[in-house]
Amino acid sequence: MEPAGYLLVGIGGFIGATLRYIVAGMTSKKADIPTGTLAVNIIGTTILSYLTYSHSLQHIYLLNIGILGSFTTFSTFAYESFALLEQQSNWSFLTNIMLNCVCCMLGAGFGQLMANLI
């Protein structure tokens, strides 16, 4: 990667992490499900899928790796899921995992569909 690429990833990471904090904070929690993390993962997956399938690679460092890489958050999803398990909220634990997996796969499919239509 060229030196400018590292700078673009860093700038994008700052933007994406800030957006994640804002969006997750604006999303109200439903029951025990951490809907903020769910929302950013669905949004980020859908946009990343759209950009990938539309072959929009000119901004890969800033958008795909930087912004969307730090906007979506598998580590937080894993931590929050494990915390639900520790709290013995077994139903919420399973629901959170299923919602993240299913909704993000649907988002990826929707992103691909939109890229093919446009």
UniProtKB/TrEMBL annotation:
TM spans (from-to): 6-23, 35-53, 59-79, 91-115
- One Pfam family of this chain: CRCB
Query: What one GO molecular function would you report for this record?
Result: fluoride channel activity
**Catalytic function, reaction form:** fluoride(in) = fluoride(out)
- Broad class of where this protein is predominantly found: membrane
Q: Which UniProt keywords apply?
A: Cell membrane, Ion channel, Ion transport, Membrane, Metal-binding, Sodium, Transmembrane, Transmembrane helix, Transport
Q: Does the keyword Ion transport apply?
A: yes
Activity modulation comment: Na(+) is not transported, but it plays an essential structural role and its presence is essential for fluoride channel function.
| Top-level division of the source organism's lineage | Archaea
Q: Which InterPro entries match?
A: FluC (IPR003691)
Please give the family membership noted in the entry: Belongs to the fluoride channel Fluc/FEX (TC 1.A.43) family.
HAMAP family reported for this sequence: FluC
According to UniProt, the name of this protein is Fluoride-specific ion channel FluC
